Known about the structure:
Blueprint: H1 20-29, E1 33-37, H2 40-43, H3 67-72, H4 74-88, H5 96-106, E2 110-115, H6 121-125, E3 130-132, E4 135-142, E5 148-150, E6 170-174, H7 183-195, E7 198-202, H8 213-220, E8 224-228, E9 242-244, H9 248-258
Parallel strand pairs: 1-2, 1-7, 2-3, 7-8, 8-9
Antiparallel strand pairs: 4-5, 4-6
Amino acid sequence: MLRIQYFCVTRKTTKLSHSFSEAIDLIKKAKHIVAFTGAGISVESGIPPFRGAQGLWSKYDPQVLELYYFFDNPKESWIVIKEIFYDFFGKAKPNDAHKGLAILESKGFIKEIITQNIDNLHQEAGSKVVHEFHGNSQQLICTSCKSTYKASEINLNKLPPLCLKCNSLLKPDFIFFGEGIPQDAYFASLAAAEKADLFILIGTTGEVMPACQMPYIAKENGAKIIEINPETSKFTHTITDVFLKEKASIAMNHIIKSL
């Protein structure tokens, strides 16, 4: 059973900075930088968030990702899953924010990425060390024998897709409602949060548990927090040290040019 820590952090008393130069200075001085990304980093790639007025759940019924519903109604679930995650999401490409993080990793600044996203765009951009807290839509897993396949290897025109080895139902290898966090991803993320001396938050609202605990854990262990977001989040007035109110791609391009 996973050991999940829950933190309650009150409003901090230090002044919130909005300075790009201060953010650059923190990045230059840090020894172990971890990026923590949410749905907002992929919006510029054409992937809408799930929540909110323009979110996917305003158009689709989220019960298709309820584990019990999926097993009871695999074809109905897969019709919607295919439309969202393979017909629609499958066309998305990494934007400058994804590419910028990969560049920062290649230059030795970013050591690890923790992502709540399942779109595989960090890997497509070139990032090597990515802890996928909620799994990856581009991999399918057999619900019986646990064999895995790249989504591109399976014919999704015939639904529901079945395992090539045992003929059992295939499921996207990301977390459904009612499913636990993958242990490897959880513990790798926890270790990264505890080790980081600088945490860069990009495009996350801080509302999805238990992933949203990772920045608090980093802060509790002494990390500075840079937040990049067009709007404030749950983190902004509690743990954030430098808040850059900007789109992820614009902020990342500015950071890359300044380093």
